Amino acid sequence: MYRxxxxxxxxxxxxxxxxxxxTACGSMSSMSPVTSTYSQDSLPDAxxxxxxxxxxxxxxxxxxxxxxxxxxxNAAGQTEWVFVGPKAALNDRGGKQLGSYYGPPATWEAMxxxxxxxxxxxxxxxxxGNLPYQLVKANPASGxxxxxxxxxxxxVALKGGVAPASECxxxxxxxxxxxxxxxxxxxxxxx
Length: 191
Prior knowledge:
Blueprint: H1 2-30, E1 53-71, E2 79-91, E3 97-102, E4 107-110, E5 115-124, E6 133-138, E7 150-160, E8 176-190
Antiparallel strand pairs: 1-2, 1-8, 2-3, 3-4, 4-5, 5-6, 6-7, 7-8
């Protein structure tokens, strides 16, 4: 009899714990964190996407930019670092690769093969040592997939990517250097 009573108390306690646990889990799902939506409010006006568009995709580009020491245009005997092209992985916010960015011409390509190029509309300073913010008007996408319908691309949240600090001189013409960078690429579609 004593054992039976202990079993009943234990069973009742177990049921109470199970009910409390289920109630807590139910409360947690209704209190899931609100995902923040991308805002361009703090960006320079020059690179803000016009109204009538909405964010379609947010990516983090992680990669490199190649520069080459070349003759300076219209300045005989002078040299400068010239942008050759980018090469970066486009990842989602969790780090999963969704595509790549390369050029020239500047091309954003999804893993599904769809891709888009564009024309630069504006740039704005993004801090010392960083590439500038950028706004690009997208050309119609090729291939069907993730890049279809993209209207604008913003480059924001920049880290690095500027021309090398090493000297570029006549004796080093043709020398190439690779610089690491990171930037968020925000893709927009018509609302």
